[in-house]
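Hmm, how's this folded?
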Amino acid sequence: MYGISKMSRSAFVMWSVMAALGLAGAVAPLAARELPVGFLSLADDERYAIQALEKGYPAAPAGRAIVAAKLALDDAAFGLQAAGFDTSRVIPLEAADLAGIPGAIDALARQGVRHIVLELPAAGVVSATTAARGKNLILFNAAAPEDALRAAQCAPHLLHTLPSQAMLSDALAQWLVSRKWTRPLVLHGPGPQDALLLAAFNRSAKRFGLKPVAQRVFTLSNDPRERDLGNVRLLTANADYEVVVVLDAAGEFARALPYRTLLARPVVGSNGLSPQAWSNWYERHGAPQLNRRFFRLANRAMGSYDWAAWLATRAIADLVSQDAKAGFAQQLKSLKQGELTFDGYKGQAVSFCAWDGQLRQPLLLVHGNGIAELAPVEGFLHPKSVLDTLGFDAAETGCKAP
């Protein structure tokens, strides 16, 4: 046995016997394989301040969503193990401020992370997208609904699981049309985020044929000279409307609007009936089981932002389970060309749009403690997928990224 030392000869003989029996692989240790998923958040994100979370506004996060990401990996454990991944874990990293986001992206990349869920405001998403360019990282926006991220600020390596403002407005507009409430009174706030909500609603109104009878600005102020601008009865007077649409990014004015309008009319938008990605009150398609699993881990109900983080992480797990050896380009192609679909527990398989990376998905029209309807609402058609009646379609997209 030339080249075999006396000490290793017995081991070599044993290996030879096992190889002859076709069992050599049984004693050859496999290299451990791990799926690390990055989860990037912002320490000073005001949406997660205690004072904001206590309010519980419909369009706001219910809490930090890292629990949802961990739940998604637990849910996907069997598939990951079958694909050869021994372990999977979420690697959380919190940037102190916007300036710290590029460094956080680099830190995650150095730990072998190739997929990152972003729990960031819009400015943070832009910063992370820029920092990740050229690093073979795929980012999932799970916490910023702004339409600009799907248009002028889009990127080929950025995907979105939280619904866009356009999708949410389209869902609301479809429901109003289906109820024949086509003459709304629109009340909106004075801030820049309110302006984005108004722009999205006006687009949806034009798209689906709503005819607002008036658009009025409200202001919440302690200044006696502006007191009338926050008076609900004055703001809802002198107009004949079928429904009141309130667009309030802060949520403070909207919470006091139902049952105080001059005419007895329903309130929709930022309060009353609100379009959401998810609700604890949804009771079909396996949703109760997902809600229960989340509640056991988080000790609170699952909300839209939690669902978006859960779906993003589940998409990552399913992506690598399908082809563990696929490279960056192939993974992006699989996601954006519809080769992969996912079960979002909302009755229809969900998938990413090729033109802007947005997850096409059903939306829930939620009130108080119930669900009024799912959108797309029955009767709204599309030549390819009815889910594409929500948000910017391929012909309408402002995304120019390759």
Notes: Confidence is low (pLDDT under 50) at residues 1-31. The two ends are 59 Å apart (CA to CA). The longest strand covers residues 34-42.
